[in-house]
Amino acid sequence: MANTKLMGLFQDPEQAAGAMTKLKEDGFPVEDLDVYSGSPFPEGSFGEHEPEMRLFMFPLVGALVGFAIGLLWTAGTQISYPLVTGGKPLLSIPPMTIIMYENTMLGAIIFTVLGVLFESRLPRRNLGLYDDRITEGYIGVIVDCPEERASAAESALQSAGAEEIKKEEG
Amino acid sequence: MHNGEHELTAGPLPTHQDVARDVLGRFQDLGHRYWGWVTVLAFLFILGIVGFIIRLTEGFDDENRANWGYFVATLAFIVTTFTAMPVISAGLRLTKANWRRPLTRVTENMAITGLLVVLMLIPALIALPTIDGRFSIWFEFPLGAPGVWDVIGYGTLALIGLALLWGVALPDLAAARDHLPASSRQRVIGWLSLGWVGGVRQWRVLYQGSLLAGAMYLLTYPLVQTLMISDFHHGLIPGLKDAIIPATVVVNGLQGAVGMTLLTMYLMRRLGNYEKYFSVEQFWALSKPLLAFSLLWFYFWWASFITFWYGRQPGESEVIRLLVLDEYRGALMISFFLNFIGPLVALVWNPVRRSVWGPALVGTGVVIGALVNQVRLYVSAFSVADPSQHVLHPRPATQWPDAPDLLIMVGAISGCVLLFMLVSKIIPVVSIWEIGEGLRLVKVRRYMNRYVRVIAKSH
Amino acid sequence: MYYRRTLTDAQINRELLDVVLRTPMWWVIIVSILGLIVAGAASAFGFMMNQGLGVTGLQQPIFWGFFITNFIFWVGISHAGVMISAILRLSQAEWRRPMVRAAETMTVFALMTSLLQPLIHAGRPWRIFYWVFPYDWARGIWPDVRSPLVWDPTAIITYLTSSTLFVYTALIPDLAIIRDRSTGWRRTVYGILALGWHGNPRQWKLQGIAGILLSALILPVFVSVHSIVSWDFGVSLVPSWHVTVFAPYFVIGAVHSGVSAVVTLMILMRKLYKLENFIWEEHIDAVARLLIVVATAWLFFFWLDLVFALWLREEQEMTVWHLRLFEPPWSWLFLVFIVFSYIIPVPLWMFRRVRRSFTWMLWTSLMVNVGMFLERLIIIVPALMRKGPWTFTYDTYRPSAVEVTLIVGSIALVVLLLMLFSKFFPLIPIWEEKEGQKLIDDVRVGDRVIPALVKEH
């Protein structure tokens, strides 16, 4: 049986929070519910599902990659071109650490941004069920449910005060 | 007070009266443990005085100067940790951090150690060679430089500290005056409360005064650290020209202050059941500046190291060998791990920061690292035979502490804790009025499907 | 910081996207003028490349002049973005909201402009790549990583990449707002840039974490960048440059000039873009308080530099300081520098009325940056123009018309880039403003209602 997606649009965030509570009471699993808003609300304001993330792994991996590149560059060029300058050792560690530090940080930052995009499930090719009014203060409550429960979801959204309900076939 | 946990509920918050009852109850009966600790600390302090007398009998001649290295390092350690602690309350009050309230008094009560610092400074100055014929921050400055000016500097810090400690404690002294049963202790407290009644004018003056005294302490602290490092370290090592070092020791002092505050809060939780005042929120919040100061300390050290390493002038090479590569390498390594690597590796993780044990453990390490770092800086400087040379030659050997040194170190540190405990018998160790004010400015309310905390900023 | 007037999300969109969604005539005029100045500077550069570095005032023994001063100046300005944005994000200061994006964007453009300066200074810019990047596999000759001249580009490229990603990450929700308000090809372009942003709790949570995490990662980079610039001087043996305090002294000086530049920018933005609902006296007051602390810390480091420079009473060191302090024109410039960067502005900022006056703050913040430009010039030129044992040709440094044109051009370039940015993207983060509006509350104590903020924990 195909799933369907519904979006109830609410002008009042309190009503959207009420819709979430109603949907959960009506037996819709919290993992199948989502909320779209034009700006962030304090976490848990809608009683939404707590997302699980592993973002911390990204900067760590990035830092390791950056460090390795820095080490290869600084040690490699010094060893391959053994020219004494300024009376410094051929393999001078203090200046190496500066470049390695920069590369480590660069790696960590690039990977963090990639991690943020990946964990945000971005980029997405099309917006799917969405409404432009969301970025103007409306709240969209999304229900992902089997076709036969769509009318129950619709009535829950309606009873909570949805201004409009949109539907998308999944 | 809140425990800083994510899940807030609609449960009622404690009131000012609850806090006053609890703190004054503890204050009235300090318990047998308190006297046990006071006895032990007094004994250790006396041992320190014995060590000091042994040092005194050896005299202050130039050839005996090296004997005073550990004494000066201990003095610098106290300045770097205990005496630096009021900086925390001053800074947090200026930035209006709400979570400061339970911990300001602990840090302010430590201002009393400023008195011990001034006392210890006098023999340290006598042990210092004359500035004639050697480089110093005073150039040709007259009027008893450096001794007179150092004493004025440290005396000013101690006085500001005491003013801060006493002034901010007035409402709590009045509370203790009004609620403690009549006794000689109650009379002393009553006299110290200066007849505080809590009128509108008094509160305004207290508020402005606490900010002003705090700001003055904040501004004086870098100055006295600059005096100490210039006179007792930099001016004794020929060829050393390290303009960043005052800033490095100031950062080490801020680090030490945070570390010592964390350690004190942890011990008070364990030994004095102060869990509800020193909660995860305070440890969590303090762990962030601790990490920042640790990174800054390393950065400052690195900035001087890389400049010397590139400079390679004879003076620089010898100095780098003495302080970094040879004689005091071990001390630097210990300090490097405890003051930089440890905090970095541990405190980048939020679960560690957001715990009691994590910041306390790292803070303890930072305090130990600060002690070892003072030994590296000051013992090495005091063991230089002739400070009037242009280039350090020969480099002095590593100097290990002997029995009087150890007695002095243990005794002086115990003396600081002893002073803190004695002050805590007169001034409640938790600020009743500041917590009470904070409680009035906070409410927990429903926000859609959850609860949130709402914090108002006074003034 | 508390909101005076509650604005709806639609109102915030309308006011902050005004210039993005339509093109006012004043914008076209200003951009055209700036474009002409930049074109003039580009022609001067072309002339210099054609004629050689002889058309500049650089000569024996002074080979670092206005271009290097300008390089440090713009790197300094670029420190404002991270200072304001990262530190205020980490400390969750409410008053950060209207200024973070403008500050971050200024970082990016100031940094790009600073990167141009050593290229211009080299006279033959294309040759720089040999010295810096290890790409020439055929010759087997590698850049010397022991040279701080290799560290500079590494640090600046790291900082530039990081700041650009930082700006972009925080811009994504606003790009979605513009996408939803536009039609046709603009909707397609903004749609692509917004990456399909919906604004569900997962994305918002990550946006929050990204702000904190990237701030924490960029802060150490920001400190390292100006430190590395300072080591161009510090690791040499030139008297008055070989100083251990240079790294933090440069960094704090950069923050001083950069944050002052943010004040200038905020006030001009407020006037030009009619942002009175978003930038208030309280914001400028808060930055001015921060500036008092930063400027005083900077003065402490300046004092350390001076005292320890004189410590060993070395002849050459004393000569340079004598030149700076007592010999015209340097003594005059020194006076202007210290008066402009501290003696006038900081005591003035002690007064609440000054801190809350846009006019006073505009002039004092501009004053700081004139002072800080001179500071860099005074650090560089007198140190080089001292007479050494083997100096036979000796003269002072007078910047030529070409150098002055290029300096003016660099200022015009940064402003031009900011104006262009403001045409396509909002200079104030719209979603952050909306978030701020949601967090307003109050607490009643007795008869008084005290403004308060909602905290999640």
Describe the structure.
The complex is a heterotrimer of chains A (170), B (459) and C (457). Helix content of chain A is 44%, strand content 15%. With 170 residues, chain A is of the alpha+beta class. The termini of chain A are close together. In chain B, 68% of the residues lie in helices and 3% in strands. Chain B starts with 15 loop residues before the first helix and ends with a strand. Chain B has one domain. In chain B, helix 3 runs parallel beside helix 16 and helix 4 packs across helix 10. Chain C is globular and about 75 Å long. Chain C has a single domain, classed as Formate dehydrogenase/DMSO reductase domain (Formate dehydrogenase/DMSO reductase fold). In chain C, helix 7 packs antiparallel against helix 9 and helix 10 runs antiparallel to helix 16. The longest helix of chain C is centred in the middle third of the chain and has 34 residues. Chain C is mainly alpha-helical and 457 residues long. At the A-C interface, strand 2, helix 2 and helix 3 of A face helix 1, helix 7, helix 9 and helix 18 of C.
Features:
heterotrimer, A: 170 residues, alpha+beta, Alpha-Beta Plaits, 2 domains, 4-stranded antiparallel sheet, 4 helices, 4 strands, 44% helix, rod-shaped, C: 457 residues, mainly alpha, Formate dehydrogenase/DMSO reductase fold, two-stranded antiparallel ribbon, 2 strands, 71% helix, globular
Distance between the termini of chain B: 20 Å
**Main sheet specs of chain A:** 4 strands, antiparallel
Largest sheet report of chain B: 2 strands, antiparallel
The shape of chain B, in one word, is globular
Order of helices and strands of chain A: EHEHHEHE
For the record, the CATH architecture of the largest domain in chain A stands as 2-Layer Sandwich
Instruction: Assign an overall shape of chain A.
Output: rod-shaped
Counted by DSSP, the helix tally of chain A is 4
Number of strands of chain B: 2
Strand order of the largest sheet of chain A: 2-3-1-4
The greatest interface between two protein chains, and residues involved on each side, is:
A-C, 61 and 65 residues
Distance between the termini of chain A: 10 Å
